[in-house]
């Protein structure tokens, strides 16, 4: 079964209420929507310790009558359905969250079907269904913010594999003028270590949004993102590349990244999307800052549909 069955038209019956949680390492966004894909209400609060944070989320949904909940979570998380720790946050250094049973806390409170995936896979899913990759059977979604993450939607499904892709931690060819050691506590100079918001700040001593458009920071920033995008194109052959997250608020980055990615590929991948179509191939999120929350909603809708299919199959 692929994940692509949202191609259906919105149904005309009374829509089911669906909960959505975009669980970021910095903040939680919770939304109440429906199975036609609309969000009707949302709240946001800082991510604190897990028990208190989940309590706020559960309180928010408690009177809503949700029929399913979808979660896109910061990670790493356990996505293997057969695993004893399925639904847990795993090796994060975030205080209290290592080994926390996120999905168990939700299921214990609501007893409804729950969808569960990484924050970036959720965002890729939202974009594939309603955003910049609508109608396409593959895309990669980047968030370049406090961390860097890459979600992968391929052949109509979200990619998981061994755990889930961790493309934000890939090492890349260094910029020739760059002596910066990088900020990733695990790898130093991986993509996150070199190009996240905190990396920008550590390297230049100034927050990203305070750096002028002609500052050399941006050419270097574009270099690392383009190195990664070119590798993603070579490895996954996505039909679209979507670049989101706080750092991508810098509008001038996108054309720089496109040009550098094309230079790196050097004409080898012979697709019109990588030549005259580049402006429509490496793009900003179609859902703006809502990709993660709408993606979580889509995960909730899918969980509800799958539970219906299972019920029908066992009748
Ligand atoms: P998070 O990754 O925490 O979910 P964001 O995607 O908003 O949240 O990313 C926050 C990071 O992006 C911070 O490091 C911040 O400095 C950086 N950032 C936010 N806005 C901008 C901007 N306009 N220009 C450059 N960097 C920005
Ligand atoms: Zn790393």
TrEMBL record:
InterPro entries: ATPase_NBD (IPR043129), Carb_Metab_Reg_Kinase/Isom (IPR051804), ROK (IPR000600), ROK_cs (IPR049874). Belongs to the ROK (NagC/XylR) family. It comes from the Bacteria. Its EC number is 2.7.1.4. It holds the Pfam family ROK. It is an enzyme of class 2 (transferase). Its cofactor is Mg(2+). It catalyses: D-fructose + ATP = D-fructose 6-phosphate + ADP + H(+). The lineage of its organism: Bacteria, Bacillati, Bacillota, Bacilli, Bacillales. It comes from Saccharibacillus alkalitolerans. Keywords: Magnesium, Metal-binding, Zinc. The keyword Magnesium applies. This is fructokinase. The keyword Metal-binding applies.
């Amino acid at each position: 079964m692929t994940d692509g069955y949202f191609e259906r038209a919105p149904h005309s019956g009374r829509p089911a209420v669906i909960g959505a949680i975009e669980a970021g390492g910095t903040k939680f966004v919770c939304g109440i929507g429906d199975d036609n894909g609309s969000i009707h209400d949302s709240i946001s609060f800082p991510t604190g310790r897990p028990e208190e944070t989940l309590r706020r989320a559960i309180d928010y949904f408690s009177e809503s009558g949700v029929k399913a909940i979808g979660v896109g979570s910061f990670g790493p998380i356990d996505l293997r359905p057969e695993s004893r720790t399925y639904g847990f946050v795993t090796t994060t250094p975030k205080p209290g969250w290592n080994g926390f049973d996120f999905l168990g806390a939700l299921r214990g409170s609501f007893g409804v079907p729950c969808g569960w995936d990484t924050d970036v896979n959720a965002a890729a899913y939202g974009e594939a269904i309603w955003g910049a990759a609508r109608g396409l059977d593959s895309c990669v979604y980047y968030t370049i913010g406090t961390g860097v993450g890459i979600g992968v939607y391929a052949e109509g499904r979200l990619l998981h594999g061994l755990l889930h892709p961790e493309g934000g931690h890939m090492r890349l060819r260094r910029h020739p003028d760059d002596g910066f050691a990088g900020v990733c506590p695990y790898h130093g100079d991986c993509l996150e270590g070199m190009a996240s918001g905190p990396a920008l700040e550590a390297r230049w001593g100034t927050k990203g949004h305070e750096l002028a458009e002609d500052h050399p920071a941006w050419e270097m920033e574009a270099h690392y993102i383009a190195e990664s995008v070119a590798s993603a194109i070579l490895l996954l052959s996505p039909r679209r590349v979507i670049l989101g997250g706080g750092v991508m608020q810098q509008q001038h980055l996108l054309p720089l990244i496109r040009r550098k990615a094309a230079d790196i590929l050097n004409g080898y991948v012979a697709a019109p999307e990588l030549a005259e179509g580049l402006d429509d191939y490496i793009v900003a999120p179609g859902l703006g800052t809502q990709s993660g929350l709408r993606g979580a909603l889509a995960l909730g809708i899918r969980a509800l549909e799958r539970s219906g299919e299972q019920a029908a199959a066992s009748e």
